Amino acid sequence: MVNSFTGSENNDPDNVSPQNTTTGLSEIKQPSESTNPSSVKSEKPSRPFSKQSLYNLLLGEFAAQNGNISLAIEKYSAEADATRDPQVASHATRLALYGKNPTAALANAKIWYELESDDEKAASIYAELLAQSGKPLKALDVLEAQLKYEQSPRFYLLQKARYEEKNDELKEVIRRLESLREQHSKDVDLIFTYAVLLQKDNREDDALNTLRKLKGSNSNPIQTALLTSKLLSQLGRSEQATKTIKKALKKHPDDKQLRLQYARLLTLTDLPLAEKEFFTLLKSAPNNTELLFSHALVAIENSHYDAAIGNLQKLIKLGQRTSISHYYLGGIAEKQDNLDLAISHYKSVNTGKFFIPATQQLVTILNKKGNLLDARKHLADLREKYPLQAPNFWMLEAQLLSTNDHVTESLAVLSAAIEQFPEQLMLRIERSFISEKLDNFELVESDLLFVLARDPDNVTALNALGYTLTNHSSRFHEALDLIEQAIALKPGDAAITDSLGWAHYRLGHLELAIAHLETAFAKFPDDEVAAHLIEVYWANGEKAKAQQVVKTIQKNGGENPKVKKIASRLGISH
Q1: Residue 506 pLDDT > 80, yes or no?
Q2: 3-state SS of the chain: helix, strand, coil percent to 5?
Q3: Is residue 561 within 8 Å of 542, Cβ to Cβ?
Q4: Contacts 24+ apart (CB under 8 A), 333-336
Q5: How do residues 443-456 score in pLDDT, each as one tens digit?
Q6: pLDDT digits (tens, 9 = 90+) for 331-381
Q7: CA 309 → CA 78, 295, 380, distances in Å?
Q8: Residue 97: C-alpha distances to residues 25, 32, 66, 90, 436 (Å)
Q9: Is the Cβ–Cβ distance between 504 and 476 less than 8 Å?
Q10: Pairing with 288, which of 16, 173, 542, 571 sits 20 to 30 Å away (CA)?
Q11: For residue 217, what pLDDT band results from cuts at 50, 70 and 90?
């Protein structure tokens, strides 16, 4: 099922104020692109300047008028620092904003604010620049100071600030906002921002309780409903989240943000209705990239391939999301058994995160058509064309060969790749898997130890080495230690839990082994986990349970060679 559909950034319920306040630097800073930068000038400073300063300021003005914004910023910034004049600092700040130079803008805004801390515009611009540059605590200092001057600080600037996790900046901002909230209980923007940051800190219940206090206030009901639904959804209460938006839509039926959020939520509970909602939104915005893509994904889930194809082709014509559109078109072509068309689409995916998955699908199709040599040639060509991604293509070739039972050749391919890229850990891990198939346990251990020497917390390597030692050595305590490290890093993982149970079995801890293997089988009832559980049940004298696992696996279908083997050895009918 589709898990999420991305909407327009402008529709994000985060980074919004529930009041009718200004929304950012764009409303208080530079002119439009067509405006002459010289029109940003403030009044001429009334106090006298040195000849050098006047000369630099004139150079800055001429540079701005001639479109040389970089030079204008340089001259005005230097004089803002030299003269400490608030009007020069103000003008330097605005020029830097116009020229998209955040470093210079922040430095000049700092000077301007230091000289005129009671100027609301100076404080507002400085606070926003601090938040954008990853200094939310300093931004909050400025916002708090605005309260003393009885100004209207824009607390919502803190919602999209960058927070350093290691320094617990987010928690400190929340702590200070909590104190401010008690003093300014009617400041809707403050309370709303506090709720948003609680949500960022994974305190959804606290955030919901905070939002309830906005009822009956002059808050923006649309933004409050959007955030409330988002919080409910994160808490796993999708139905309540949907009801919240549906209720808000009754009062504001034409609000596109609400309808978009409603459509997104429906993707979790009602895909046919979600498709209708996205279609309705598309009527008023037929070229909206996000809506076209979201509707296409839902249509694919509903097997409405014609609608999905139309949207994805439109995106390609618009020059938007071309690679990902080709990827999904390739998937549709595969489902419709049009393999040549699928190949064509997959070949058109040459950038982004879907490049490797598309290549994998492409070579899989070529192999399915009996063109293994063509698939290998394609991967070789890609290695030449995209040398930085060559390790990925080496690995795909090795996996392709292994799938076709050319295991020895697969090992040779990986060894050649490792010779060229000795520090590529994924190649080492892949070679360890292939080496195990060839009973080359010395190479398995060597590769996995190499990985762990460079990445001690590599969960895959920890589990693989632990499992290998459990199966092919008597170093069971060492194996258990490795597997326990893996499960600590990735608790609840079914494969690691299976390894854990198997290691305990090897150590003679039958009850512990059964507990872990039952947990693993409940989450992931595959052939290998089932075989382990059958063997341990049998060893513990629980033959009826062992027979029941065999029956369960038979009902699931599939080849299940490991279950068949253990069942034959133990004399269990299958």
Answers
A1: yes
A2: 75, 0, 25
A3: no
A4: 334/361, 334/365, 335/305, 336/305
A5: 999 999 999 999 99
A6: 999 999 999 999 999 999 988 899 999 999 999 999 999 999 999 999 999
A7: 56, 11, 31
A8: 9, 12, 17, 11, 59
A9: no
A10: 16
A11: low
Give the whole-angstrom CA distance, residue 473 versus residue 436. Answer: 13
Residue 43 carries which DSSP code? P
Distance CA 5, CA 265 (A): 9
Record the pTM: 0.66
User: Quick check: 109 and 125 in contact, CB under 8 A?
Assistant: yes
Q: Which of 322, 320, 343 is nearest to 331 (CA)?
A: 343
Predicted confidence at residue 337, as pLDDT, reads: 95
Contact 102, 57 (CB under 8 A): no
CA 243 to chain CA centroid, Å, is: 27
Identify the CA nearest to 531 among candidates 550, 515, 512, 513: 550
Measured CA to CA, the distance from residue 327 to residue 359 in angstroms comes to: 10
Residue 48 CA from chain centroid, whole number: 54
Cα(181)–Cα(177) distance, integer angstroms: 6
**Amino acid code (one letter) for 158:** L
| Contact partners, residue 413, CB within 8 Å, separation at least 6 | 394, 397, 398, 401
Distance (Å, rounded) from C-alpha 135 to C-alpha 130?
A: 5
Cα 168 to the center of its chain, rounded Å: 21
C-alpha span between 494 and 529 (Å, rounded): 9
Structure tokens that stand for 374 in this block: 């063509």
Q: Which amino acid is at 112?
A: W
Residue 568 CB burial class (10 angstroms; 0-12, 13-18, ≥19)? exposed
Mean per-residue pLDDT for 453-480?
A: 96
Give the pLDDT confidence of 395-429 residue by residue, as tens digits: 999 999 999 999 999 999 999 999 999 999 999 99
Evaluated on CA atoms 23, 26, 32, 36, the torsion sign reads positive
- Rg (C-alpha) for the chain, rounded Å, is 31
Cα–Cα distance, 272 to 521 (Å, whole number): 34
Closest among 211, 237, 236, 235 to 225, alpha carbons compared: 211
Distance (Å, whole) CA 208 – CA 192: 10
**Would you say 94 and 29 are in contact if contact means Cβ atoms under 8 Å apart?**
yes
